[in-house]
Amino acid sequence: MTSTAQAPQQGARTAQPEHLGHVIFIAAAAAMGGFLFGYDSSVINGAVEAIRDRYDIGSAALAQVIAIALIGCAIGAATAGRIADRIGRIRVMQIAAVLFVVSAVGSALPFSLWDFALWRVVGGFAIGMASVIGPAYIAEVAPPAYRGRLGSFQQAAIVVGIAISQLVNWGLLNAAGGDQRGHLMGLEAWQVMLGVMVVPAVLYGMLSFAIPESPRFLLSVGKRERAKEILAEVEGKDVDLDARVAEIEHAMTSEHKSTFKDLLGGGFFFKPIVWVGIGLSVFQQFVGINVAFYYSSTLWQSVGVDPTDSFFYSFTTSIINIVGTVIAMIFVDRVGRKPLALIGSVGMAVGLALEAWAFSYHLVDGKLPGTQGWVALIAAHVFVLFFALSWGVVVWVMLGEMFPNKIRAAALGVAAAAQWIANWAITASFPSLADWNLSGTYVIYTVFAALSIPFVLKFVKETKGKALEEMG
User: Fold this and answer.
1) What distances in angstroms separate CA 98 from CA 1, 104, 206, 208, one per listed residue?
2) Interatomic CA distance for residues 309 and 185, integer angstroms
3) The pTM is what?
4) Is the CB of residue 41 less than 8 Å from the CB of residue 162?
5) Which architecture, in CATH terms, is 1-254?
């Protein structure tokens, strides 16, 4: 499933003011999938220690339960495009919404650890579908003049979803007297945290009934008149609809369907450019960013921070994540992808090194010494800020731009798969590594942040201002 070909910027293509509000609503509704992506990915942060305590499991088993959702993510992302090409983009959104609801209810009311893990996989499948269908749908529906800005709704929705999940967790923990296993509404607090996701999931499902199907999909199944109606809705009635339909149909018929075989070549199995894409994906995850979103409350509690405060710090970190993302969206086209990535790498390396230094000190009365505690807290926020204003956005922008047309779809799929695998490796290994040596774990993340600097300098080419057709 791919978005429509880039169209020339013509005045007639710009949505009229009376249409723009409707287009923004459509993009925002589709981006609710991104909100749920962020929410479901990080809401588990509030339940980690309660799950460990309730089921009396060690760090290795706990890590697998937390990380197992990523298996569902990978499967959902790999299959969403093909499903959408068969039954439509809107139907895929509705399926994802149902899966989010089922996962939220199942995770909140598990019979045992194994079925809790199963509901996590179901939620992961929904995340994977939402991660693909949202950007693709927005790209296909948005008028060309607004496509970039509307496309950024997805990333913005993800970071807002992360922040809201942490705010909800913090509020519920306070309501339960600061105890993750404290009783709330007849359940334990952590169960309510996971169950609350039903609300945005139902809203996502309802919004999917209020937005139109993609004109591109409608044309692929022969519904030309309906496609014209929707194009008129989003691009204005002054647009030559017959010419617009003809352009989309031409783009669809002339597209090269890239396959895995197209990526092969060179001395190391894949073409060099594919390895660069895989490298970007792996470095993005191996700096340990998802530790901040999956385990931050556990991390702070392990160095003596009060549970309620640890949940609050998880929320403030997610606010910093939003700020950094906004900075990236402002500067990615002004400064360029490569300089932004390098700035981020340096900032992340400094923040992670300071965390490693702070965590190397012995606890006093179960807490880090005062200076080290503050350094760890500030450094964690610095790390997330520099990640968000650089690698968090730049990698996805570059993966969408850096590959030649004939291999773009397949190469992007391989790079995204590498990202899910790297995410799983970090998520599954952190609890055991932290038990071994928390400071040493952050030294490892610091090394990867530092290594990303020569990687970007040597292998990554700037894509700012270049047409997709120029990528070779």
Assistant:
1) 22, 10, 11, 11
2) 23
3) 0.82
4) yes
5) Up-down Bundle (1.20)
DSSP state of 16: P
Longest dimension (CA), the chain: 74
* Cα separation of the two ends of the chain: 22
Compute the radius of gyration of the chain from its Cα atoms.
Answer: 22
Residue 20 has what pLDDT?
Answer: 78
Average pLDDT per run of 10 along the chain, which is 472 residues long?
Answer: 40 52 89 92 90 90 90 86 88 96 96 93 93 84 75 85 94 91 91 95 95 89 88 77 81 69 70 89 94 88 87 92 90 87 97 96 86 93 96 84 75 82 91 92 97 95 63 52
Residue keyed to tokens 């906004």:
326
Of the CA atoms within 13 Å of residue 424, those in its CB half-sphere come to 17
Asked if residue 200 lies in contact with residue 32, where contact means CB atoms within 8 angstroms, the answer is yes
DSSP 270: E
Instruction: Specify burial of residue 105 (Cβ count, 10 A radius: 0-12, 13-18, 19+).
Output: middle
Look-up of token digits 């997330």: 384
For 172, residues 6+ apart whose C-beta sits below 8 A from its C-beta are: 46, 184, 189, 192, 193, 196
Superfamily (CATH H level) for 256-472: MFS general substrate transporter like domains (1.20.1250.20)
Residues of the chain with CATH 1.20.1250.20: 1-254, 256-472
| Cα 266 from Cα 249, distance rounded (Å) | 35
Cβ–Cβ under 8 Å, residues 352 and 449: yes
